[in-house]
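Design review, sub-item: ligand-bound model
Attendees: FS, YL, KQ
YL presented the inputs for the 2'-deoxycytidine-5'-monophosphate complex:
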Amino acid sequence: MSKKIIVTIDGPAGAGKSTTAKAVAEKTGLPYLDTGALYRAVAWKLDKEGVAPEDGDKIAETLKDFKIEVAGGKVTADGEDVTQAIRTARVDSIVSAYAARPEVRDALAGFQRAQAVNGLVADGRDMGTVIFPDAELKIFLTASAEERARRRCAEREAKGESADYDEILKQVIERDRYDMTREIAPLRPAQGCVILDSTDMSAAEVVDAIASLAKEIEAQENR
Ligand code: DC
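KQ shared the predicted structure:
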């Protein structure tokens, strides 16, 4: 059987990681894992249970029996479909605080590694630095804060929601600062990664660049 590789795509919010990773997975035939969705599902659960981000013991206790499933773009938490519920403005605003907790990161680390038995394209913040440091291909996908805010606005408007560019830009910058300066698994380029700045690239160009690298590496690994 041919060896399946692991491709990690990390980067700041709004850089296009999920869309890119999904398309790269399709082009390479590798499974796709959206790790942001896992952190969102955990944040959704802890918020629902009224557990504060500061309460490490309660977080660990609540997550002990918490079951997440991800398949075909659907996210299930304790059997409940939360695919939509984890994308609300409420979850957007609370998820970073929970993601900074070691109890949350520990609870998700094993789950993420277990998904990689048949190779994987995984996007997140610490895929290349912490979860899969030996991945065959590590990408750091970024774009200017202004471009990322513009893309977020366009996404919201496409969904028929109102979007205030200045407010979104402020949130993008604030979330970057939070994710990059947190003590555990801060967002930063992994050792040996390829840094891709997508500010002036189309989505298709980004996908093509990563998919060709992945295919080249997979061919090398199986030579
Ligand atoms: O990519 P996203 O916006 O869905 O991520 C949601 C939050 O989860 C964001 O605050 C960063 C955090 N996250 C993380 O800390 N580590 C990951 N591997 C993925 C996401």
